[in-house]
Amino acid sequence: MMRANGLYKTFNPGTPIENPALRGASLDIPQGQFVTVIGSNGAGKSTFLNAISGDLIVDQGTIEIAGRDVTRLNAWQRAGLVARVFQDPMAGTCEALSIEENLAIAWQRGEGRGLKGALNASLRSLFRDKLATLKLGLENRLSDRMGLLSGGQRQAVSLLMASLKPSQILLLDEHTAALDPKTAAFVLELTDQIVRENQLTAMMVTHSMRQALDHGDRTVMLHQGRVVLDVSGEERARMDVPDLLAMFERTRGEAIADDALLLG
Amino acid sequence: MSLIALLGATEIGLIFALVALGVLISFRILNFPDLTADGSFPLGGAVAATLIAGGHDPWLATLAGTSAGAVAGLITAWLNVRLNILQLLASILVMIALYSVNLRIMGAPNMPLIGADTVFSPFIARAPDSQYLIQPLVLAVIVVIAKLALDAFFASQSGLAMRATGANARMARAQGVATERMVLLGMAISNALIALAGALYVQTQGGADISMGIGTIVVGLAAVIIGETLIPGRTIMVATLAAVLGALVYRLFIALALNADFIGLQAQDLNLITALLVGFALVLPSLKRKFAAKRSAVTKGSTAHDAR
């Protein structure tokens, strides 16, 4: 369960390049729901996700995860509650470390790290089993460097790492944007499977309206730093991309009209 | 080159192997360009020499010198992670500050230890004729212990988290690694090792001198780079071994160059040789690649010819 309430974040305040990225964004995600987030460039999608992950601390508003106020906690302090997959396949894994070492780091997410050996036989066999579920043949390449893997393989391992330990919310940041269409489809399918099997609460930011409607249980649209559209259930099931596009156009028009009203 | 000169080169090589291990942690594992070494090496020496001259136990003095180095590393890391001072600049600040600190500690630009008890004294007392052999032996044991301890640490949960911090800090944070703490800890360990080298150095050289730290970082880096060229490898065990061997090879080459009378090099040419050696080690990998590419092109050409 995640509750973001009235988030504000302005970059470079008081300068000519001042950029109010979030302007009162609010979103409640109940336990077990998979929400997709769409929006045009500069709508505040990434900022919103980074605010929830703790990469950014918001100027105003509160963020609660599983009933805990995490507004002032930074990324590593929230890591026990938040799992995430980055857009850039390079960002979510360490290319200089081996596959098993990357998994071992994820295995300790949200827990203390001591002087105990990071890897042992039982962990390796667990990792091997988990990797086998990806059906990429990675279970035989535990000690290979992560840098040897393709972008799609790395995103698949990233997903595995994110689901290795329980989390209160899984954040997916356009995690298929850097992949070719076929690989993207594979990673998306894997995402659905992992979210379903682990009954995860998840939020996926995407550029693609198709993806936003095809995956998850609910779709919200961000525009100018606010949630302007929120569809789920029957209404969403009946929707197709043109419908969403029409709604998108309408909200944009209305949003501009709103601003014009406010300014006037 | 005489046997004594060879053992002398090995001795200094082993001391700088500790520096190389420290530099490996800061430059390679944490990705933190750290010049504190030029201050923490003489800091370890100054603290150890002062305590030994004051009649304290040499092992305790060595430990105190090592701890002082850890504190120096902590300060550099703190300036960077808390006050957001650029890594290089933070380390230069601490380095020049340590120059004054070291003068204060010793109370004079140098501190002789002639005749004082050192960590080597008990071993030398048993075999008074073989000091030249015993000092490198004791140092070798210390270096091996340091290497194995580092290997074990970097295979642990914390050590792995530290490696992730240097390789991809954003990923490390997302996995719940307190990256700032890791930088603090890693820099403390790095400079502790370098200060340990300084503390041992003054005990082999019969005293501390305020200028003994000049160029420490260059030598450490040279050792790491030469080691990586000699035995490339991605695992930590290989990297630490490479750093140790790099330091030994480096000192051996220096000794050879200085001892070869026909070249006509003298002690004052040391820094020039260092620069040449490091430069050579830096271009060697690309030369190797070029050579390999040429050779494979030649073999391919000949098979094509044979096919016809």
In short:
The complex is a heterodimer of chains A (264) and B (308). Chain A is α/β, with parallel strands linked by helices and 264 residues long.
In words, what does this structure look like?
The complex is a heterodimer of chains A (264) and B (308). Chain A is an alpha/beta fold and 264 residues long. Chain A has one domain: Rossmann fold (3-Layer(aba) Sandwich), CATH 3.40.50.300. A six-stranded mixed sheet of chain A has the order 6-7-8-3-9-10, with helices on both faces. A four-stranded antiparallel sheet of chain A has the order 2-1-4-5, covered by helices on one side. Chain A is globular and about 60 Å long. Chain B is mostly helical and 308 residues long. Chain B has a domain of 211 residues. Helix content of chain B is 78%, strand content 2%. The C terminus of chain B is likely disordered. At the A-B interface, helix 2, helix 3 and helix 4 of A face helix 7 and helix 8 of B.
